[in-house]
UniProtKB/TrEMBL annotation:
Its main location: nucleus. Residues 724-733, 750-760 have a biased composition (Basic and acidic residues). It comes from the Eukaryota. This is Serine/threonine-protein phosphatase 4 regulatory subunit 3-like central domain-containing protein. The keyword Hydrolase does not apply. Residues 15-114 form the PP4R3 EVH1-like domain. One of its GO terms (cellular component) is nucleoplasm. Residues 655-670, 714-723 have a biased composition (Acidic residues). One of its GO terms (molecular function) is protein phosphatase activator activity. It is found in: Nucleus. Pfam families: EVH1_PP4R3 (PF22972), PP4R3 (PF04802). Keywords: Nucleus.
Length: 865
């Protein structure tokens, strides 16, 4: 079941067509889509071409097959004709090529059958008998031969071709009659011979073409075609070929077959392009081109296999005794020889080019590029392009060698010269191909070529731009004298090459361009009056910024590179042209690329100039992007300013704690501090300490307003608190157990203290022994800090590790013993601000958050109350 269904679908697709009708306006109207078939129509005995609509099965077209030659096949899928009854043009467009060929063969078969069934007259019988054998070629039989050649149908053309090829004397006798008619000036006979020869050529038989294009008949055949009835005067093709066409041999060719094919190829080309250019159809032209192609392949193959010929050719090219005229002919021949090699297969062509390289063809081209004759120089570049088309690595492998370096320099030099209208950017194309990074192979060779190019030849190209541009407005007189005239097309090609280099290797190009100030020199083009050169410079900067490199952006900002571009944009005004679009495109690229540095640079530097253009969408978007960058950069910069200070404080605290815990005798320090406290009264503490200290040992500023710079205790403002008397402290002797507990608490790390702090608070509130221990510790450490006999780091560490715990126990006593007048004094003296600063500081640094209780006064914290 599957096979028949598949076969049916294939048949339907082969017969699926679209019907077109040519209207009065000369346009094709689509009449619908359906399936075509050739069959007998009801109530008619004629075979007809029928198309049935594929949707509603209605008849779209019924056309009886006409025996006349009215059908044409086009592009393998279209059959068109002119309906003689309706005087309309119709066409069928097939979905499948096979379907078109099938229907075309059926139409031809039907025409042949109709032709033989309808023609029963004596004329047909005589014609049919003549097709069995051609009549003798004489002046009296020319009309009959002309009728056979021009009026034979498709089926008879094959028979006619066979008869002509079988009769070996047909063309010889025909040429004899032509000479007689020409001598007698028989114009009618000459016209008939012209139509006979043209009809034979239109048979499109390769065997007949090979016969008439031979050396024996070609000139006579061209002579027959001089007498065209459609031209009032006869043409003189033979005279042109014999007298005006000169065959030059740059080097003697000894093979007669090669000479014969060369002459034949030229004459066939002349016949195709000049003599029969008006009457040849596409099929005949394609057949003639295939003959020319085959001849070229034969010529090149025979010459490349002749080793003596190639050696003699290059010996003459390298010989200093060769005259300039001979050298020109040799170079032209070499170019023709390389061009004809395209007729060979790819493998043979590559082998030929390698043989030419071994013979030294690139060295020959180096010499050619140094000749003043510009036509000869361009011929040499054409040869290089042929090699690059075949395989770019052939030329790259030569250029990277020491002996090949001058060739690249000559190409760069040729790019900077003016070749007039004959220059088609060959030099630019060759250099681009050598530097192209998209090649399938040759990466190392390309890198070496780029190194050579950037080191030796890039400064030359940039200097051409600098020398051809006028100086700034202040130095007009000096610039006019030093300015060198260069065609704008050359400068445009240089800019295009520089942009190409950026796209190929951004990192290498960036370093080379910035070192040689290429960007600054290219922007000199903004001083030129040619607007397309100004646009080229802007496009170069746009390409350079596409690298998205911070170093490039810093370089542009540092050297104010965009100033010339903004200046020409402002000078252009509101004119909407290519210059305006190029600058806006550059700004749009910067905006979309989030180049914050360039955004700030442009707005901060040039916004006063760009402000009048805010009506443009690109300028508005650019300003909005700038404002967004400022908003996003604000909080980030503040955080960046705070974080380093915080990290420094944290590192200082860690260092102090480490120094404290590394002390050898903690108990001795505590005892000595206690004895010192007993010897000195409390009233002398303020005199001996000139300025307060932070917990990390840094001197505090009295006017500091930063939440992190405030000291834990503000001693300078304690003058108003002289009436304050702390409650008496009891200092019972600590037992051994209590001393062990003290040491254990002192040596705990800050992180452990923070973890255990919630659980310690209720314990400290319940134990009376612990209160006594902490009271002793607070008094001892506070007195040690104030006398200054211990180091600030050690005292600060002790205060952080121990006073924080005593502060919780002292809250209850502080709330009970403090009077209302003391609270007011503390508020007036900035004590409350000190407490707030300490609390904020504790939020930033967890290690300092427990040094002073939130509601305790500075004196209470020091005295341990």
């Amino acid at each position: 079941m599957g096979a028949p269904e598949k076969s049916q679908s294939n048949t339907n697709s082969m017969q699926r067509v679209k019907v077109y009708h040519l209207n009065e306006d000369g346009k094709w109207d689509d009449r619908g889509t359906g399936h075509v078939s050739i069959d007998f129509v009801e109530r008619s005995e004629e075979l007809s071409l029928c198309v049935i609509d594929e949707e509603d099965n209605e008849t779209l077209l019924v056309h009886p097959i006409n025996p006349e030659d009215i059908y044409r096949k086009q592009e393998d899928t279209i059959i068109s004709w002119r309906d003689p009854e309706r005087s309309t043009e119709l066409a069928l467009s097939f979905q499948e090529t096979a379907g078109c060929s099938y229907v075309w063969d059926q139409i031809c078969t039907m025409q042949r059958n109709l032709h033989f069934s309808s023609l029963n007259s004596e004329t047909f019988h005589s014609l049919n008998s003549e097709l069995r054998e051609l009549p003798a070629v004489e002046l009296t039989t020319l009309p009959l031969i002309l009728k056979i050649v021009t009026e034979s149908g498709i089926t008879d053309q094959m028979r006619l071709t066979e008869l002509i090829l079988k009769d070996h004397d047909f063309f010889r006798n025909l040429m004899g009659v032509f000479k007689i008619c020409e001598d007698l000036e028989n114009v009618d006979g000459l016209h008939m011979i012209f139509n006979i020869v043209k009809g034979i050529i239109l048979l499109n038989s390769s065997q007949i073409l090979e016969k008439i294009f031979g050396d024996e008949l070609i000139m006579e055949i061209i002579g027959c075609l001089e007498y065209d009835p459609g031209v009032p005067h006869s043409q003189h093709h033979r005279n042109f070929l014999k007298e005006h066409v000169v065959f030059k041999e740059a080097i003697p060719i000894k093979d007669p077959l090669v000479l014969s094919k060369i002459h034949q190829t030229y004459r066939i080309g002349y016949l195709k392009d000049v003599v029969l250019a008006r009457v040849l159809d596409d099929a005949i032209v394609a057949n003639l081109n295939s003959v020319i192609h085959a001849n070229n392949a034969i010529v090149v193959s025979l010459l490349k296999d002749d080793s003596t010929f190639i050696q003699e050719l290059f010996a003459r090219l390298r010989s200093p005794s060769t005259s300039m005229e001979s050298k020109k002919n040799l170079v032209y021949f070499l170019h023709e020889f390389c061009s004809l090699s395209k007729s060979l297969q790819v493998v043979q062509q590559l082998r030929l080019f390698r043989d030419l390289i071994n013979e030294g063809i690139f060295h020959v081209i180096e010499e050619v590029l140094q000749i003043p004759d510009k036509k000869l120089v361009l011929t040499g570049t054409d040869i290089l392009i042929l090699f690059l088309t075949q395989d770019p690595n052939l030329l790259r492998s030569y250029v990277v060698r020491t002996e090949g370096n001058p060739l690249l320099g000559l190409l760069v030099k040729g790019m900077m010269e003016d070749f007039g209208d004959k220059m088609h950017c060959q030099f630019l194309e060759i250099i681009r191909t050598l530097l192209d990074a998209n090649a399938l192979s040759g990466g190392a060779q390309r890198a070496n070529i780029m190194d050579i190019f950037y080191e030796k030849h890039l400064p030359e190209l940039v200097d051409v731009i600098t020398a051809s541009c006028p100086e700034k407005s202040g130095n007009t007189s000096e610039g006019a004298t030093r300015r060198i005239f260069t065609k704008p097309e050359v400068l445009l090609n240089i800019c295009e090459l520089l942009c190409f280099c950026i796209m190929q290797d951004a990192s290498r190009t960036k370093c080379s361009f910035l070192q040689n100030n290429v960007t600054e020199k290219v922007l000199h083009l903004t001083r030129r009056k040619e607007k397309y050169l100004v646009v080229a410079a802007i496009r170069f900067v746009r390409t350079l910024l596409s690298v998205h490199d911070d170093y490039v952006q810093n370089y542009i900002v540092k050297n104010n590179m965009l100033k010339p571009i903004i200046d020409v944009f402002i000078a252009n005004g509101n004119r909407y042209n290519l210059l305006n679009s190029a600058v806006l495109d550059l700004l749009e690229h910067i905006r979309k690329g989030n180049a914050t540095l360039l955004l700030k640079y442009i707005v901060d530097t040039f916004w006063d100039q760009l402000a009048p253009f805010q009506s443009l969408t690109s300028i508005q978007a650019f300003k909005v992007k700038y404002e967004q960058c400022l908003e996003s950069a604000g909080p980030k910069s503040t955080a960046d300013a705070v974080d380093p200070r915080r990290r420094i404080d944290e590192r200082a605290l860690e260092k102090e704690e480490e120094d404290y815990f590394n002390e050898d005798s903690d108990e001795e320090d505590s005892a000595s501090a206690s004895n010192t406290q007993k010897e000195k009264p409390t009233s002398n503490i303020q005199k001996e300490q000139p300025k307060p200290h932070l917990s990390n040992g840094v001197a505090a500023s009295p006017t500091s307003s930063s939440p992190r710079s405030g000291g834990l205790v503000d001693y300078e403002d304690d003058e108003d608190d002289e009436d304050y008397k702390p409650p008496p402290r009891k200092q019972p002797e600590a037992s051994e157990d209590e001393e062990g507990e003290l040491l254990r608490l002192k040596r705990k790390s800050p992180c452990v203290e923070r973890e255990q702090e919630p659980s310690k608070k209720p314990r400290l509130g319940k134990s009376s022994k612990r209160e006594n221990v902490f009271a002793v510790l607070c008094s001892t450490l506070s007195h040690a800090v104030l006398t200054g006999k211990k180091s600030p780091g050690t005292a600060g560490s002790a205060a952080r590790s121990i006073v924080a715990k005593g502060a919780e126990d002292s809250r209850s006593s502080e709330e009970t013993n403090s009077s209302s007048s003391d609270d007011e004094n503390h508020k007036d003296d900035g004590v409350s601000s000190s407490e707030q600063e300490t609390s904020d500081n504790g939020k930033l640094n967890g290690e300092e958050s427990l040094v002073v209780a939130p509601k305790s006064s500075p004196e209470m914290a020091v005295n341990g109350s």
